[in-house]
Write a structure and sequence with these properties.
With 88 residues, this protein is of the alpha+beta class. Helices cover 49% and strands 19% of the residues. The strands form 2 sheets. The protein has a 3-stranded antiparallel β-sheet. The longest helix is centred in the C-terminal third of the chain and has 17 residues, at 67-83. It holds the Pfam family PqqD.
Amino acid sequence: MSQEGESKRLSKKGFVTQTPEGDLLLVNEKGDAYKVNESVVAVWNIFEDKTVNEVINEIASQINVDPNEIKPAIEQLTAQLVEAELLA
């Protein structure tokens, strides 16, 4: 991820819902739904006008791990959420 991407503040878009079977869905403002797990929803919920690095540091402190351990996974997830128009 570029330096610009790391300093850009992102906020969640759309909403979370559940299927009758109990599957979690993130739905963007166009109505496109993506099946996700609780971890994805937890990360998505943290994005309220925050940079990727701020989110990485917040999650790392919550689960007591080195931020560098989770950085690649969070950056990849963030890119997917931006592409799915669930973060902007």
